[in-house]
Amino acid sequence: MSSSSGYRDSKGRPIVVVTGMGIVTSLGRGRDDNWKALTAGRSGIHAITRFPTEGLRTTIGGTVDFVDAEPFCAPALSENLADIAVSEAIEQSVIGSKGDFPGPLFIAVAPVEMEWPQREELARSMNPDGPVDYHTLLQAARKGRQDLHDRFVFGGVAETLAGRYGTKGSPISLSTACASGATAIQLGVEAIRRGETDAALTVGTDGSVHAEALIRFSLLSALSTHNEPPEGASRPFSKNRDGFVMAEGAAALVLESMEHARARGARILGVMEGAGERADSFHRTRSNPDGHATIACLEAALDDAGVTPDDVDYINAHGTGTPENDKMEYLSVHTVFGDRAASLPISSNKSMIGHTLTAAGAVEAVFSLMTIAEGRIPPTINYDVPDPAIPLDVVPNTARDASVRRVISNSFGFGGQNVSLVMAAEPA
């Protein structure tokens, strides 16, 4: 990135910076606890205790068990996780007064609702002798339990957070599968670049590890069945990888134009230099194995940032641990970075936190910015059986000290929905 005016990038747009970050995953609550665990190579994957798993092929996950979860209601947990992350991000940014955030909210939320046991209980409480169908449930919630009705609609989490933190305009709820958290950041960046706002609150949250979701992903043969030991299940880029591990978490980033941040004396944590987005519309769950969309996504992100592949010091991989996705990501990275792909550090946070699904893009953006700030690259753990078909420097098993000024973070979602983000240190 270059700037002639100080606050504009090489394309003449406002430079977008990060002034606040918050995070919660199965590794812990807050930036400090998460970073210590991540760089120590500690896994947050464990046996699921929230609901019975007898008879299931997968019985493990990265559930956040230290945050209250209303039974059978994923939106409630997603809201609680997001609240923790947003509170930490706004506190760090020191922006606005409490409950008066000076910009819009863009939030990635899982497209899930409460599970059927709670739906039936609600419907019967309002209409004991009537049918238990969707219409009756909706009417019961609307008449007698407005709080549950608010959670029933997709935008309920966003509306609650917008009211609590005083964001401006209509809150935007979005879902682009596993790229959602990165999409939220992209929308915030674009709003600031267009001059619509000086600041934006961007969030990714997902608390949807429940029995129904676990069974659905299991039926797709997408989940690891390496239940013992749980912490050894997520094995991105390894030859013996057998699927991803469902997980929960949330992350929030306060974005501002550099001019706005500097004017108020804010501490700048990093620069959001570029975002690239491409979809391939190949399959409902699979990305096209030829990688054309993910290749174009990486290229678009670099072009948007005004940098070349040689300017990137580290890649925060999507790295789910599924056989097909890891192979496709390698193809994409090798195509874009050429021979340098073999020596460029690329590691997967998911080896330790699992796949936080809708939240992943935001969670991994926070970790990417911390990598820049701390000069330490988190490892890919469980890398004991290298895959000769994927010759990458995955920072195996142990964190590595390194000078990192620029990171590209990949989020490749179901249905071929892909976003790559380019983040960099504050320019000197």
UniProtKB/TrEMBL annotation:
One of its GO terms (molecular function) is 3-oxoacyl-[acyl-carrier-protein] synthase activity. It comes from Microbaculum marinum. Belongs to the thiolase-like superfamily. Beta-ketoacyl-ACP synthases family. Gene3D superfamilies: 3.40.47.10. Pathway: Lipid metabolism; fatty acid biosynthesis. Residues 13-425 form the Ketosynthase family 3 (KS3) domain. Its EC number is 2.3.1.179. Pfam families: ketoacyl-synt, Ketoacyl-synt_C. The lineage of its organism: Bacteria, Pseudomonadati, Pseudomonadota, Alphaproteobacteria, Hyphomicrobiales. GO terms for cellular component: cytosol. This is Beta-ketoacyl-ACP synthase. GO terms for biological process: fatty acid biosynthetic process. It comes from the Bacteria. It is an enzyme of class 2 (transferase). Keywords: Acyltransferase, Transferase.
